[in-house]
Amino acid sequence: MRRFLLKLFRRPTLEQDLEAELAFHREMAQAGGNPIPLGNPSSLKEQAYDLWRFNFLENLWRDLVYAARGLRRSPALVCSALLSLALGIGVNTAVFSIAVEFLLSEPSVTDASSLVNIRIGGKQPCPPGAC
Q: 3-state class of 122 per DSSP?
């Protein structure tokens, strides 16, 4: 937790330290005292920032801000998408509940042997005891 707070409040100091470190390495490379090539300074800065950042929280915040901007720009599209999602979820829930009740579970009656099948119309006679 301490590191979290230090990184959060000392970011300008860390950036200044990184700039000083990169400047030192550039001077050493120009003077011939640095046998290891430094590479792209922008890439090195981004790698250092990735170590300092809280990527999950910052990405989540960016996504939320982007979503809020999208909500403001086209509220009709967002409402229609939400309504279609709600309708789809509701219909799927209802169909699944009916399928579980009628196809996958035992009949929820006290005396299952007394159930009869009633058909309206049709040319076949009723089974004995059903009419």
A: coil
The H or E element that residue 24 is part of is: helix 11-31
Structure tokens at 39: 């590479």
Q: Give the C-alpha separation, 43 to 80, whole Å.
A: 42
Task: With beta carbons less than 8 A apart as the criterion, state whether 11 and 52 touch.
Answer: yes
Q: How far is the C-alpha of 64 from the C-alpha of 57, rounded, in Å?
A: 11
The predicted model scores a pTM of 0.39
Cα gap 58→52, rounded to integer Å: 11
User: Do 34 and 25 touch, CB atoms closer than 8 A?
Assistant: yes
The three-state DSSP-derived secondary structure of 68-98 is HHHHHHCHHHHHHHHHHHHHHHHHHHHHHHH
pLDDT by 10s per residue, the chain, length 131? 676 666 666 667 778 888 888 888 888 877 876 666 777 878 888 888 777 777 777 789 899 999 899 889 998 998 999 999 999 999 999 999 999 988 888 777 788 777 777 767 666 766 666 65
